[in-house]
């Protein structure tokens, strides 16, 4: 399985002022660097949890599939369906796409699942769907705190080569509540 994310919403998951307050930063000298840290922290939280914080269009390509396909990025963004509908296409060996001949339905929510109502033949299947919490105000407060804390930790640890790697302690605990559990 491979998947790509295309941003729909613009901006950052948290504000520059939130991170500067958490890291006790006065002044504007490091604002550009802190803004990059915010985007990096948000991307790390998203990758760690398998979520989209801001609205995104996710495209998944599978070479083998069944009628029930757990999708890799959640939550499913129901509010985005009008402008970003779910598409299910079959790809041939040359990469040409045709709509899947059968219908489908979605189990929406934190861990979306696409269910096909019939079979289709192709070298691969490509599914595109909207994911994320939408705008920054819709992101749960604990996930915003995870991004803020992780960005502040990365700011504090900049330039250190022997600093511990990975998410900040608070971000790790928060992210654990939002991860999909594998069985």
Automatic annotation (TrEMBL):
<dbReference type="InterPro" id="IPR006450">
    <property type="entry name" value="Phage_HK97_gp6-like"/>
</dbReference>
<dbReference type="Pfam" id="PF05135">
    <property type="entry name" value="Phage_connect_1"/>
</dbReference>
<dbReference type="InterPro" id="IPR021146">
    <property type="entry name" value="Phage_gp6-like_head-tail"/>
</dbReference>
<protein>
    <submittedName>
        <fullName>Head-tail connector protein</fullName>
    </submittedName>
</protein>
<dbReference type="InterPro" id="IPR011738">
    <property type="entry name" value="Phage_CHP"/>
</dbReference>
């Amino acid at each position: 399985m491979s998947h790509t994310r295309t941003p729909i919403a613009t901006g950052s998951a948290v504000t520059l002022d939130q991170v500067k307050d958490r890291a006790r930063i006065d002044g504007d000298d490091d604002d550009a660097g802190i803004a990059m840290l915010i985007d990096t922290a948000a991307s790390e939280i998203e990758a760690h949890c398998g979520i989209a914080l801001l609205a995104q269009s996710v495209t998944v390509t599978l070479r083998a599939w069944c009628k029930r396909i757990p999708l890799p990025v959640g939550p499913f963004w129901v509010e985005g369906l009008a402008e970003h509908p779910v598409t299910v296409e079959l790809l041939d060996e040359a990469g040409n796409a045709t709509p899947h001949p059968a219908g489908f339905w979605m189990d929406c929510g934190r861990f979306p699942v696409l269910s096909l109502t019939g079979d289709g033949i192709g070298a691969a299947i490509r599914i595109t769907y909207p994911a994320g919490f939408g705008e920054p105000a819709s992101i749960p407060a604990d996930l915003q705190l995870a991004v803020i804390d992780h960005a502040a930790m990365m700011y504090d640890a900049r330039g250190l080569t022997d600093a511990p790697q990975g998410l900040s302690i608070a971000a790790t605990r928060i992210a654990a509540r939002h991860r999909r559990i594998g069985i």
